[in-house]
Amino acid sequence: MAGEPQGGLTEYIQHHLTHLIPMNVEKGAFWAVHIDSVSVSLALGVVFCLLFWLKARKATAGVPGRGQAFVEIVLEFVDGQVKDVFHGDRRVLGPLALTVFVWVLLMNAMDLLPVDLLPLITEKFGLGHFRSVPTADINMTFAMSLTVFVLIIFYSFKAKGFGGYMHELFTAPFGANPLLWIPNFLLNVVELLSKPVSLAMRLFGNMYAGELVFMLIAGLFSAGSWVLYGMGIIGYTVWGIFHILIIGIQAFIFMVLTIVYISMAHDHH
């Protein structure tokens, strides 16, 4: 479950919070690409698309197999959430919501792997430390939330037109009085920017905290005491079971908020 912390628990945690970056890039640099977060998220995205494509390709009208039944349950669940919130054309929003939910769920589920499993493999091959949870990387959560932000802007212009959206930005919520144009605009900009920030920070904060708890528990395994070792096993098991709930809830919240924000973009004040 965990290797022996070198230099104490603090150094062990700090080491596990570092990302795998290109060798010629300085750590902490603004332009550093986190290879571990990007590679894991891309791999999970491919797995998700391939799995659902294979099940859809082999789908039958008769009694479905377990794989097809599982995919149908997920599809019906996501479609039900979209139908409850959004009352327009769901041909784009439905697949988007499905992608968001399953992809975030898979990325969150990487937190259930033993803390030292992937780092042990990558460091043995001389690749450096590898963090396996993309959603515990604020760069990834902000990248996803900014994509949602772009969609919000796009659908705002598409549903209301350029003039209609500009009119809404400057006249809502206090009315069309020219003296209130600036306050209206500032409030709407703050509301607009708060959406991607809240999406990114909520997902990142929960997954980062969960990852830290796993690291703290993992530190008990090398404390040199059988009592602490036993407590570590119990703690790892209990927190892992509880964390399954957090993983699902955070994926669900990210999906629902994406639907809600895009639905709000279609609505007129």
Description:
The protein is globular. It has helices at 9-16, 35-57, 66-85, 93-109, 117-124, 138-171, 181-218, 226-266. The relative contact order is 0.14. With 269 residues, it is mainly α. The chain is built from 8 helices and no strands.
Could you outline the blueprint of secondary structure elements for this entry?
Blueprint: H1 9-16, H2 35-57, H3 66-85, H4 93-109, H5 117-124, H6 138-171, H7 181-218, H8 226-266
Biggest β-sheet strands, sense, barrel: none
Low-confidence stretches: 1-6
**What is the helix tally?**
8
Structural class: mainly alpha
Portion of residues in beta strands equals under 5%
- End-to-end distance: 54 Å
The total strand number stands at 0
Radius of gyration: 22 Å
Oligomerization: single chain
Roughly what is the average pLDDT, rounded to an integer? Answer: 87
Whole-number count of domains: 1
Helical fraction equals over 70%
In sequence order, what are the helices and strands, one letter per element?
Answer: HHHHHHHH
Categorize the overall geometry.
globular
Briefly say what this structure is.
The protein has 269 residues and is an all-alpha fold.
Question: Main traits of this protein?
Answer:
269 residues; disordered N terminus
